[in-house]
Amino acid sequence: MDNKLVVSGENGVEYTIKVIDIFYLDEYPDKEYIAYTFEEPIDEGHVKGYISILKESDTDFSLIGISDDKEWELVQKKFNEITKNIVNKDE
């Protein structure tokens, strides 16, 4: 499945991203997070991944950066779980 999404960055520029997963955290139930990639290779078989807060409006999707350290730690932990599951599926 090829999950692509067109989103607006904080600077208003539109990007096409490949969605890895969309998830919530119990600690921040009012926020929706998105793990995604621009498919930039970092080494053989791996691409660089990103996480942002996903905001949806009537007309588009926006990516918002995460600036709170505690929130970032929890998001990174969830991202590691997600990517570990992806790697394990591929093996």
Beta-strand percent range = over 45%
First-last Cα distance: 18 Å
| Biggest sheet strand line-up | 1-2-3-4-5
Helix content: 10-25%
Task: Give the radius of gyration.
Answer: 13 Å
Structural class, from secondary structure content? alpha+beta
Counting DSSP H or I runs of 4 or more residues, the number of helices is 1
Largest beta-sheet details: 5 strands, antiparallel
Question: Care to describe what's here?
Answer:
The protein is α+β, with helices and mostly antiparallel strands and 91 residues long. Helices cover 24% and strands 53% of the residues. It has a 5-stranded antiparallel sheet with strand order 1-2-3-4-5. A hairpin with a 5-residue loop joins strand 1 and strand 2. The longest helix is centred in the C-terminal third of the chain and has 22 residues. The two termini are 18 Å apart.
Give me a quick take on this structure:
The protein contains 1 helix and 5 strands; from the N terminus they run E-E-E-E-E-H. The protein has 91 residues and is α+β, with helices and mostly antiparallel strands.
Descriptive keywords:
91 residues; alpha+beta; five-stranded antiparallel beta sheet; 1 helix; globular
Helix and strand topology:
Blueprint: E1 4-8, E2 14-25, E3 28-43, E4 46-56, E5 61-64, H1 69-90
Antiparallel strand pairs: 1-2, 2-3, 3-4, 4-5
